[in-house]
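Quick entry between incubations.
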Amino acid sequence: MRKSMKQGIIAAIAAVGLSTTAMAADTLTLAGLGGKVQEDLTKTLFKPAAEKVGVELRGESHDGLAAVRVQVQSGAPGWDVAHLGAEDCAIGAAEGLFEPIDYSVVNADGIPERARGKDWVGTNTYSVVLAWRTDKYGDNPPKDWKDFWNVEKFPGRRAMSVYPQEMMEISLLGDGVPRDQVYPLDTKRSLAAIAKIKPNISVWWSSGAQSAQLLKDGEVDMEAIWGSRIAGVIADGAPVKFTYQDGVIGFGCVAILKGTKHLAEAQKLVANIVSPEIQARIPTMMGYYGPANQKAFEVGKFPPEVLAQSNQSPENAAKQVIMQPTWWAEHMQDVQEDFKNLITQ
Amino acid sequence: MTMTLDHPGTLPAAAPNADALQRQGARERRALASLTLPGAALIFVVLILPIGWLFWQSFFGAAGQPTLENYARMLKPVYVRTFVTTFEVSGLVTLACVLLGYPVAYLLAQLPERLAGLLMIFVILPFWTSVLVRTYAWLVLLQRTGIINTWLVDAGLISEPLPLVHNMLGVVIGMVHVMLPFLILPLYASMRAIDPVYMRAAANCGATPAQAFRQVFLPLSLPGLAAGVGLVFVLCLGFYVTPALLGGGRVSMWAMQIADNISVYGNWGAASSLGVVLLIVTGIILYAFKRLFRTENFGGTR
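Done. Structure below.
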């Protein structure tokens, strides 16, 4: 009895060993930030791209750049490709965590320059938007960040994110800086504007789920929130509306981890993820998100209601600011501490 | 000792005998001590070594160069504030736990063992739910449109909802809920060990119940209380999820700062230096506490 069990265990270990070696040949591991976003991105982008390359795709999740750093520092990363926020891609690239993107394989024609680097490329966009409770503001809602900053005309409780990314941008817009002059960020002016609105910020949210719950339960009256999170709130029947006016378009991105054993396949996977054909799946499959590749709108045909929803449709994109990940990569350390110092006071 | 009693006639040979006894005693102590070797080795490998490594790393910068910048950074206002907040919150939570937990432990200790065991289930019950779920549950209760505020407003007791959460108060409430069992359990154990005869003796000597409690029961329960206080205080210092969600972004504790440093700075030293400082300051506080209350079995109860 005991012996047979031991044999069984040895056989099982051998089988696992065999299957992993078999997998290693044609399996790519892609690690993302997890949750529903990764589920959706896998369905919309990663899986079809892997099918085109002819490899199996294994999904893993991480909680940010620190985890990617550990993988690379180990010398033998367990992941081939990582999906991150673009500012993290830019920071990781500066730290030398990634393999260069082979732009002879990856055609980046339709991807704006801000949304790619030597070592990374944008895969999707999201927007930080202004959302409000219609039961509070009725027919006279706030229209842009200037109204968000105008507490006399628009009294009410507000919420912003605890992370400085995008919050610094909207504070400048709220302070009257035109959209095309937001970068390079005037950090002094931005922090001063945030100090001004601080007494009216009831909550600084630290997770997407929390930001959605605040608005849904009416804990706050208006909020800077990820457009993708609004979808669920509105679908739940909460009296909430939002505008793309003065929104900040940020990017998700992919990068290939330094030391991967499947560099050629990984380049091909990335090339397919950002190809216009696969990018064109985003507007219909992931409402409120947008493709990073603008050519997706040339390739795909979308009904008007889909275009009205997508943050990246030409009409909506024109109202927004495109985030500059490289600025954040350079200034994150100082800005992060100053911002936090301000909001925890 | 027993040898000399067993052989009272060998008194002149006592000196060499004592020597032999001493040698044997030392041998026995060594043999017994060697039994702890596996445990000591485990503690060395999983505790001492990593902490030493943490300490070592904190003196290196992003490019691997030896530096003190990881420590110099802590003079920035955000670090100072976060550090002070951490001890402030931990102190408040510990105090609240003592005020709430002592009467509960006392009640449990007075009840018949069977009934106390039954009630103890309610003390331990929170352990069975995830911290995240409990934290979100507090949001539902405490927020502006939450159950408590809605009731109070509907009852006409208040006109404006009270700010119960997204501030220090919310953090303390959430953390007390998590920490209370850690105070009650060691306290209850030490109260159970107090012989009820002492209280009867005090009454016999003419003490009022209040006097008997204050002069007899309270001092005897202090070791258990100190153990609970130490446990709660130290555990509070490392809190992350509860303050992040219930603090509304305003209450930032040291653990959150460590997490920020790991993600923002490309080197482990930036985070490990924070860990080192917390460890040292906590050690100093616990030592001071121990001297202050002269508790010998601090951190554990017999």
